[in-house]
Each structure stands twice: as C-alpha cells, then as structure tokens.
Amino acid sequence: MKINISGRNFEVTEALKERIEKKLGKLSKFFKPDADAQVRMSVQRNRHILEVTIYFNGAVLRAEESGDDMYACIDKVVDILERQLGKYKTRLAKSLHKNAFKFENALKDEADKLQEEVTDFKIVKTKKFAIKPMAVEEAILQMNLLGHSFFVFSNAQTNEVNVVYKRKDGDYGLIEPEF
C-alpha cells in the first residue's frame, strides 16, 4: 500500500510519519500493493485533525478524527478503519455466500434481520431538479439559502456535475468527478 502523508498548517515530523506507516502498515495486508492511502494532518485552533482516505479496488475507506494529541488521533483513525474493513469484509462475504448455508428455523429470523441490516437500503424520497451552470461560490450561497448541508450543481468552469457540502469544521468541501 502506498501511503502519501501531507500536512496543512502543520509540519509532519519523522516520528509521526513512522507512527502512521507502522499503524497503517498493519492494515496493508488487507489490500493489494496498488492501494493508495492519503493521509492529511492539520491543526486548526489548537485541534489536531487527521484524515485518512484509502482507495482500493474501486472502493474508498475514509476516517477522520480530531483531538488534542495527533498520536491519539492516529490510533483512533486506525480503529475506525479496522471497523470499516470488518463491515466491508462481512458485506462482501455475505454477498458471496448468500444462501450457502441452511439455517434452522430458530436461527433463520436472526439471519434475516442481519441480512436486512446489511443490504436493505430504503429510498424514501426521490427528487428531480434542473441543474443550471454556476460558479462554486454561487452554489455555496444557494446551499446556504436553502439551509441544506450539500448542493448539486453544474460547474460553469468545467461543465461537470459537482457537489458542494458543509464540513463538520464549518468550512466547505467540493466533490468533483474523476474519470
């Protein structure tokens, strides 16, 4: 697994790099060598923020943690990623082994409930709207006017569909498609 470490408003020390490589190295056994891990460290108002995104097999694992100590954030993020890997592995195993075992009646109800939790995604509302080309700043204004946490729009500069969203820290994010 390739690990790219960067710092924002923060100088990444060798000790932090070694700690991240050691902790994420434990997870590399679950990925092919071409998996890519992006690690971003930053400090905002005396809060250490660690974001880790791992791209593999067309899937993405992402974890973010903030706290007073960057080392504690690293440990928490690795725990989050391990839980996400467990869920992903379970979901994958269930889809591969669907109906592979026969459950007795007593266990069948429990298995059905568990199966529903993993695969039952219920869409409760569908919404259609016209997408007009606009600048990113205008899309953020529209999102705030509507009181939403995200806004889908056509970027006037790139002519592609983008999404702006409000982050936990109060800043804004932009999602752009990559082909």
In words, what does this structure look like?
The model has no long low-confidence stretch (mean pLDDT 83). The protein contains four helices and eight strands; from the N terminus they run βαβββααβαβββ. With 179 residues, the chain is of the alpha/beta class. α1 (14-27) runs parallel beside α2 (70-96). The chain has helices at 14-27, 70-96, 105-119, 136-146, and strands spanning 2-8, 36-44, 47-56, 59-67, 133-134, 150-155, 161-166, 172-175. It is globular. The protein folds into two domains: 2-95, Ribosome hibernation promotion factor-like (Double Stranded RNA Binding Domain), CATH 3.30.160.100; 133-175, SHC Adaptor Protein, CATH 3.30.505.50. Strands 1-2-3-4 form a four-stranded mixed beta sheet, with helices on one face.
Return Rg in Å.
20 Å
**What is the CATH architecture term of the largest domain?**
2-Layer Sandwich
Instruction: Write out the strand line-up for the largest beta sheet, numbering strands in chain order.
Output: 1-2-3-4
Q: Count of helices? A: 4
The total domain count is 2
**Coarse morphology:** globular
**Straight-line distance between termini:** 22 Å
Sequence of secondary-structure elements: EHEEEHHEHEEE
Output the CATH topology of the largest domain.
Answer: Double Stranded RNA Binding Domain
Fraction of residues in β-strands: 25-35%
CATH class of the largest domain: Alpha Beta
Mean pLDDT figure: 83
Sketch the major β-sheet.
Answer: 4 strands, mixed
Helix content: 25-40%
Poorly predicted tracts of residues: none
Provide the CATH superfamily of the largest domain: Ribosome hibernation promotion factor-like
* Helix/sheet category: alpha/beta
